[in-house]
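Subject: for your reference before the review

Hello V.,

The reviewers asked for a structural picture of the protein, and I figured it would be easier to keep everything in one thread rather than splitting it across files. Below is the amino acid sequence we used in the manuscript, unchanged from the supplementary table.
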Amino acid sequence: MTFLEDIFSTLEKRDHDAVLQELRDGKTVPITGKDLLVDVRRARAFFKALHLKKGDRCALLAPNSIRWVAVDLAIMAEGLIVVPLYARQAPEELAAMMRDCSPSLICCEKLTQMAEIKREWPEAPASYCFEDVFAHQAPDTKARDHSVPVTDSDPVTIIYTSGTSGESKGVILTAGNVGHMLGCTSKRLDVLMQGRFRERVYHYLPLCFCGSWIMLLTCLLRGNLLALNTDLTKISGEMREVAPDYFLNVPQLLERMRKAVDEQLWKTGGFVQTIYGHAKSAWFRKQETKSAGTDAFWLWLARTMVFPTIRRKMIGANLKALICGSAPLNVDTQLFFSMLGIPVLQVYGLTETTAICTMDDPRHVDPGWVGPAIDGIEMKLGDSDEIVVRGPNIFSGYWNRPEETAKVLRDGWFHTGDQGERNAEGNWRIIGRIKNLIILGSGHNIPPEPIEDELLQRIPGAQVVLMGNGRSYLTAIVTGAVAPEQVQSGIDTVNAGLPHYKQIRAYHLASEPLTIENGLLTANGKLKRDKIAQRYKSEIENLYAVKHAS
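And here is what came back from the structure prediction:
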């Protein structure tokens, strides 16, 4: 059986249980396993009526919703290839990806979404809104045939990579890739949940991203209740309302949650703030094995009187763990949540590895590391400490890009482009992207990400990008509503702990933030370093001219 047939079998068993719910406009809109299967059958009937061929591509452009899920499953179940796209991405980028994969049709929530794309791509194929897709009568609901014309070697999706330094590439994933990954994620969640019956899961990340999609499919396979956020401004309230057992995160949200707790307790003041402040200092001293005489008392007091209230008000009473991926998490943030009694389980992977290579084991979390390789996956270090991977999770290639595929798939190994290291316990740590290495004129190789992360901790609300390739020293582009003295103070603090060649000698403070809309961030929030360098070319030149003149 394919993973799709397994999911359909689970939905049939959950016929009267809610398996998905949308959180929309202050209301909860649930759907049962039975009704989701009906929607999938209606969508399959729509695609059948179009007489598409196996392997035809169908673009899916819409925000998260129950109907998005039904269309996604229906496209794959018909032997077609789903191409999920991020609705917030720039129209010219969306048009470029669609041109690349040549879809036979485009499915979207509303046809108005296609107006700007068609201006960029007049030759776009027929577009259908969800109302069209679900207008067909579902086949007899008594029929229990959930067979699909898909084998493990068949492509089921093309997911476009972020494209931090160039045009996005379409990653082809097969049913076998996905099936293996769902087995691995479900097995790890079994360890976390220790046999608990059904989980409540909260989900706010776009379903078109590979890791987010794998979480969706894992929840459907396990018969969980997955609550879908539809408004990012309501995340904090919805977390408490849903009271999830776990949910998938990116580092930015966890950083904001940590900051919000500190700010709220600072405003509260009084004895609660006193306990929290002493306990927090005691906790971080403990991590450095520098505990003072009264530290155990303050930690006991906080665990009794303060930390449980923070957990309950922040996330609800049921949380077993936060799961975090997409980028390395600052170790202090991971330790902060651990102090509150909330494990943060890190995940590492790329779209090309079906989202995941490593996952923290809930029983043995090593802060600052991203866990061991998952079952069936081999990982090792290649040249320049590059992480290379092979196993059943590795993609079959980039769509229509054999030369690009050959660059990263060599002798059965996928070359990730990430620098890493492995400790004696088998856990991995990600240092940075090899292509992001800044090579100074002195020959020093500097991964920018660790320094940027340190600066972000010292300059809350800022965005930071290091520059200096081929130069004699490092500089930084800083954006955000921050004062110059804050920036300089943060840089001075970070510089104090760095060797001379890693110290930042000058910076430019820009008013315009780096965003997806202005083309300086990828769809999942990563820096487009080449475009940022081009945007601020004259400012960067001035930084070096001024410094040199002085």
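For the response letter, the relevant points are probably these. The radius of gyration is 24 Å. The mean pLDDT is 91.

Happy to draft the paragraph if you're swamped.

O.
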